[in-house]
Amino acid sequence: MTQFLPPNLLALFAPRDPIPYLPPLEKLPHEKHHNQPYCGIAPYIREFEDPRDAPPPTRAETREERMERKRREKIERRQQEVETELKMWDPHNDPNAQGDAFKTLFVARVNYDTTESKLRREFEVYGPIKRIHMVYSKRSGKPRGYAFIEYEHERDMHSAYKHADGKKIDGRRVLVDVERGRTVKGWRPRRLGGGLGGTRRGGADVNIRHSGRDDTSRYDERDRDRDRERERRERSRERDKERERRRSRSRDRRRRSRSRDKEERRRSRERSKDKDRDRKRRSSRSRERARRERERKEELRGGGGDMAEPSEAGDPPPDDGPPGELGPDGPDGPEEKGRDRDRERRRSHRSERERRRDRDRDRDRDREHKRGERGSERGRDEARGGGGGQDNGLEGLGNDSRDMYMESEGGDGYLAPENGYLMEAAPE
């Protein structure tokens, strides 16, 4: 494809001219000629010094040894200065130490930004203050972080010493102590090797010198009190939470109990309505069965001729059951055969509506049988529907036989005792 490019573009791909050869300006190192060739040191051995005439070697000081030496010299120099100042130090004749030593309070670890008026406001709560002396640096004029407070009464100083230790002023907890320079024998200030150590007594033999120059036991007691107070508040909060949880659980139980009671009342009302509905349905079926029985009796009375009428309209005839139900005591002959023919005729001429109603009645009976309430409910229904106090010829039979007989009275068959389904009566 490059052959189709224009000449100006093909010139870009053309190779450059070869680099021209230029002779070197000077010879290479291995080509140079040396006027003095290399030689050994053997000719110079006689110039060496005799080892027997050499001075003994000297050992130089290392860096660590030099630092340790300077540190020791500094400590020795400081000790000499401290001894000199101890000889000159007399707190009772110090011009800066004024006022009553037993009414003066020492305050250390003060914030450098804290003013004298702020200290006065903080410590006047314990009593009237006579004088406040804040210590400043002589060279820079800046505060050194401690002060002396003189109270008018000694009891106020003791109250401040007892309660103001560890008080936070301008974000820093101050250290409060009595003035020990003029009150404690053998006590030395911090610049002379003493100060407020762990025992707050001073002196190299009794003072505990460490970074935290305070009485840790007092702070430990305060921390223990603070921890106990915190634990007490936490236990109180836990008890309140547990009490609230119990109350919520009891409210939930009461709410669930009320809902269960309401649901139970609703179900009981529904069950009572269902029972009333079933009772009405059974009573209506009983009335319907009695009405059909009366109609059947009237029809039999009109077509049977010399058949014996029942004693009352509501009583079923004792010989109206299916063949073989009441045994050989029932009437037989042409009247029984005519009654069977009439029953077959009526059965064949029933309408489809009556068949559907019978099927619904059979389904209701099956449902009642499954619920387990058929026996007791039917006994009460028969007692109500049978016209209480009337003799219908069934008193001598048991409950099962009476129910079976009533079922056979109401339709065209009988109820099988083993499964509760309506069975067709066997024709004679």
Automatic annotation (TrEMBL):
Residues 246-259 have a biased composition (Basic residues). Residues 103-181 form the RRM domain. Residues 192-201 have a biased composition (Gly residues). Residues 60-79, 207-245, 260-277, 285-301, 334-384 have a biased composition (Basic and acidic residues). Keywords: Nucleus, Ribonucleoprotein, RNA-binding. GO terms for cellular component: nuclear speck; ribonucleoprotein complex. Gene3D superfamilies: 3.30.70.330. It comes from the Eukaryota. GO terms for molecular function: U1 snRNA binding. SMART domains: RRM (SM00360). Residues 48-79, 187-428 are annotated as: Disordered. Pfam families: RRM_1 (PF00076), U1snRNP70_N (PF12220). GO terms for biological process: regulation of RNA splicing. SUPFAM superfamilies: RNA-binding domain, RBD. It is found in: Nucleus speckle; Nucleus, Nucleoplasm. Component of the U1 snRNP. The U1 snRNP is composed of the U1 snRNA and the 7 core Sm proteins SNRPB, SNRPD1, SNRPD2, SNRPD3, SNRPE, SNRPF and SNRPG that assemble in a heptameric protein ring on the Sm site of the small nuclear RNA to form the core snRNP, and at least three U1 snRNP-specific proteins SNRNP70/U1-70K, SNRPA/U1-A and SNRPC/U1-C. Interacts with SCNM1. Found in a pre-mRNA splicing complex with SFRS4, SFRS5, SNRNP70, SNRPA1, SRRM1 and SRRM2. Found in a pre-mRNA exonic splicing enhancer (ESE) complex with SNRNP70, SNRPA1, SRRM1 and TRA2B/SFRS10. Component of the spliceosomal U1 snRNP, which is essential for recognition of the pre-mRNA 5' splice-site and the subsequent assembly of the spliceosome. SNRNP70 binds to the loop I region of U1-snRNA. This is U1 small nuclear ribonucleoprotein 70 kDa. It comes from Macaca mulatta.
